[in-house]
Amino acid sequence: MAIDRLRLATAALTLMMCAASGLAQTPAQLTPHRVRVESADYLGKRAVRITPDGDVPNGEAYAIVTGASFHNGTVDVDLAGRPAAGADAGARGFIGVAFRLADGQYEYIYLRPTNGRADDQVRRNHSTQYSSHPGFDFARLRRESPEKYESYVDLEPGVWAHYRITVDGTKARLYVNNALQPCLIVNDLKRGDTSGGVALWVGPGTEGYFAGLAIKPAP
Asked: Contact at 8 Å (CB) between 64 and 215?
């Protein structure tokens, strides 16, 4: 009987993981929050294109994955971000994933693609970023805990990168381009050990593309 229960649990988990794979391949599987979402073919991948819908404050532009509920586990996605046409000089192609989204609050980890190969070491050191909306934006975290919540990773604007986060309790890890070691380690998620939705996130002045999203809950 124990073996049968194990088989059933394994089968259920496999079905859940398979159902999660391929989420958000079309705009119909996303609920926009102050963004425009459309289908696109981009650099050889079928994707969704996400851009802020007008002059949107930082942290308010994202598309919620319909039906996704996330506590611990992994989120994988291919993404490509670049400054949109007409964006100001401070645009970096900000792009990433928001998780444990509830009542407008969420954790998020994002990339700054134009920083990855900048000819300035300080900018390179700011290629990845953890923040928590709304209480802990990058400016507060950088001021109160310099270097703790951002790091370097090799990136190019507008080029596909594989993005993977693992979340366990109050800890999160970011892996880029199938690296075996994380490029960013967070040991104190600001919202604590919570649960909530998942969203595809873009920052101000960003033209973002996402493909191949897979959300896998921890066993």
From this structure: no
Q: What distance separates the 2 farthest-apart alpha carbons in the chain?
A: 63
* Amino acid present at 16: M
Give the pLDDT confidence of 98-157 residue by residue, as tens digits: 999 999 999 999 999 999 999 999 999 999 999 999 999 999 999 999 999 999 999 999
Q: DSSP code of 3?
A: H
Where in 53-104 does DSSP place strands (E)? 62-65, 73-83, 95-102
Closest among 39, 44, 33 to 133, alpha carbons compared: 33
Q: Show the tokens assigned to 97.
A: 């994933």
* Confidence grade of residue 25 (pLDDT, cut at 50, 70, 90): low
164's CB contacts (< 8 A; 6+ apart) are: 74, 75, 76, 77, 174, 175, 176, 178
Domain count, the chain: 1
Q: State pTM to two decimals.
A: 0.89
Secondary structure of 136-187 in HEC code, one letter for each residue: ECHHHHHHHCCCCCEECCCCCCCCCEEEEEEEECCEEEEEECCCCCCCEEEC
CA distance 200 to 215: 12
